[in-house]
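Handout for the seminar on molecular recognition.
Each group receives one record of this type.
Step one: identify the two inputs.
Step two: read the structure output and locate the region that could contact pyridoxal-5'-phosphate.
Step three: write two sentences on what you found, then compare them with the reference statements printed after the record.
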Amino acid sequence: MIPINKPLFDEEEVVAVSQVLRSGVLTSRTESASMVGKFERAFAGYVKAEHAFAVSSGTAALHLSLLASEVGYGDEVIVPSFTFVATAETVALVGATPVFVDISLDTYNAIPEEIEKALTQKTKAIIPVDLFGLPADMKPIQEIAEKHGLVVIEDSAQAHGAQYHGMPVGNLAHLACWSFYASKNMTTGEGGMITTSNRSYADKLPYMRTHGEKSEYTSSMIGGNFRMPEIEAAIGYVQLQKLPQFLALRQKNAKRLTAKLQDVGALQLPIVPQDRNHSWYLFTVRLRNGNRDSTVNKLRKLGIGAAVYYRVPIHLMPFYHRFHRNKLPNTEKAAEEVFSLPVNPAVTIDQIDYIAASLRSILH
Ligand SMILES: Cc1ncc(COP(=O)(O)O)c(C=O)c1O
């Protein structure tokens, strides 16, 4: 099966992990820890943020960002429903209410006008998602947030390498949250990062990541154990050096797949607005008026790891249905019609051609 995504590593990561093990320092809680700091500085540089804080997962990054923004009981947070559950789950975890808004069927990202319409006296934050690796339309979202005094936490979990107006994503948000889960454009196995250029967040995040302790075993603020282990940071540092090469291969594959499928009328190929660069975490197409599931099954039978993200939008999930308030027709349409094709760096040009030819013949 040509996988939709898979972790790519070689001897370099193996050596980096061995070095950490030999050093005997496994946690970033100890003063002699070095890998977490090194990874954070390199990642902050890469995304052009002033500060980066490594954490245990992308979910932890969102959770900690919400805690640091003092979002809690009685507050509302605007989120898309067409995303991975962690975007809304972390809002519920801090006791706040996720308010779902609809997405554009061109970009699959939240529509700024819908965000504005969903505002109430209780709205405290917005979490735009750079879905599939395409940046959310951050400028209007930032303007709404500024006008109403809201916090913007960008869910950039899928968007390492993506750009908005020529800048790495995350720069127009108060906080950006990244994931290094095994399928992502770069990985640490499990892991995450918060980036920010905002001093007040940077002052408290390192303490909140370790139980709110400003001095050992004395908590001055709310927190928890959100730390990234040294081994993961060592892998992350190596992966970050490889990221440009990974992204170039993803882009090359996405470009070729686009060219090969361009004239298939039933398919809506990814639409990338001019002011954005896609990170091609997922190459997601929409099958208009066709049978999406049978198409995906046929592709899988041919050894092509086509996959459906996200079949059940969050507002229709059993637990989250209680938060369902606004009509979300585009979200529900996307959930029924989209599927993703492999463009990861391990996919060869011949395989791209095979994927395109297979899909063409299925849809013929
Ligand atoms: C959009 C989105 N948000 C949040 C997350 C959560 O990241 P993690 O799996 O590292 O907790 C993911 C990744 O799986 C994601 O794709």
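Reference statements: The chain has two domains: 11-238, 243-363. The first strand starts at residue 51 and ends at 55.
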